[in-house]
Design a protein that fits this description.
This protein starts with a strand and ends with a helix. It is α/β, with parallel strands linked by helices. About 1% of the residues have low confidence.
Amino acid sequence: MNLLSVFQVSKNYGERTLFENVTFGVHEGQKIGLIGNNGSGKSTLLKILANVDSADSGTISQNNQITTAYLPQHPIYEKEETIIEHFLVSQNPKAKLIRDYETEPSDHLLEQMNLHNAWSFESDVKSILSALGITDLSMKMRELSGGNLKKVALAEALLFDADLLFLDEPTNHLDISSINWLQTYLQKSVKTLIMVTHDRYLLDNVCSLIFELDEPNLYRYEGNYEYYLDKKSEINEAFESEQTRIKSILRKELDWLKRGPCARGTKAKGRIQNIYKLIDLQQKDTKDKLLLDVKEERAGKKILELKNVSKSFGDKKVIHSVSYNFQRGERIGLVGDNGSGKTTFLNIITGLLEPDNGLVDVGINTKFGYFDQHIQKLNESQNIIDYIKDIAEFIELSDGSKLSASKMLERFLFPRNIHYSPIYKLSGGEKRRLYLLSVLMKSPNFLILDEPTNDLDINTLSVLEEFLESFKGVLVVVSHDRYFMDRTVDHLLVFGLRDEVFRFEGRVSDYLDFKQQEEKNSFVEQPKPIQKERDKPKEKTKLSFKEAEELKNIESLIEKLENEKEEIEKFFESGSSDQNLWKKNSARYDELKKTLDEKYSRWEYLLSFS
């Protein structure tokens, strides 16, 4: 069933065209990921689809039998409302029924209350908020952290019981556990979904259709994010091949022009016009790319050492007796629920916050670069170029060459024509990109990134990840983006687990698997606290009885799964035209690969103690 029809929709922002003549349909059950660079108009298009904003031209037709729900990037709320009051005064149909019935009870309203099961609304609110880690519904909205405000807004959208969901950056400010819960929820949900997100795991595991806004056009990819990357790679290869062909032709044609041909003849005029068309085509299709490259200050032997550091806020103990010695080239991810102490830890090691007890010993050559999630240091009335020049007129690159502030801005995709514009005119993603430039320009050798992925588009994140791969200093990352963390860090410090800080050897994906396994099997080895040697549990040397039994069974299970995978691969090679079988086998094949990865990891772990 068609739920939404979009026909030749266009939108301009000042003199800039965000998108033009966009046309597509949305059908029941589809889960669509909407991606594109910062400023390409993703959130604007989503608002137009959700009837929160209007298009300049074109038409949008919505099936009048469906209901919709919209999650904005920035939650809307009354500061003095409690959490439960926020839900009870919302536009949710069940909440409206409850208000009407309490104001003026009637048999008709009672019948509607029973029909729509409105009696369970408050318990539904408690259930979904509890799953997201919020249990005290008497708290005022003004008392909530950014992450908890996002959780409340997300719960409000999900509880709307809508046929069509519009979600704008639903993972921003959420902790990793909540994002994992959201991913599972959306995978199981039968609701139709259009979602703007930079979370690549969410796009890959939830979405079956990708829309890419590449101004002013919208491109459609019939698959998940992995499929999109494959197709995008093919397109880029074809584009590069075409550009090579154009360059080859242009070289010959420009040689012909230099010889000074007579332009009076019709053929000569036509040939000259074609040359200019080729030049225009090459210039039009050659896009600027973000380039990250700055000199890195050399670190000394001592980087940073924490000795029995503690910090409390009132009666709440946030960090308790933590000792840690940072090593050169270490790449650490900090994970833990909102409020578990990650940002407090960062502020202590950078000297922005004094510990209650303990010592923070910073090496003499250690130079911090701190990308704060709140980007508080931006003076929005200042011109872009002046903001950068206040840091440095020239920037030294890794090869020793120097670039002017304006050239560095261009490398960061800020064109010259906006250099003298005030910062407040930039989009949220552009402000974060500018702030990132200001941090990197200081040539740090101890780089701290606190929620760097919020509001940054996927292309910028990919370039940042590539830069960090070659970064030789200490890297500490706090991020809810599992893909970003998996690609940039080697091990984790886990906050808020049994009131301790633990070191976990592995990536975020490994840690989530560990947590899942821990819930199922209490015999799984616990991560080791980083506090004191005497606090560490004894090193595991052999398998428990249950683990030995698991090892016996897991090899035959792996063999069975591998055989099934091989049968599906034979089907792929058969050239069958049965689309239903292709769809069924493709889904099962993806499921098998994921399961096999998990089983092999578990088998290797068990085998190491046998």
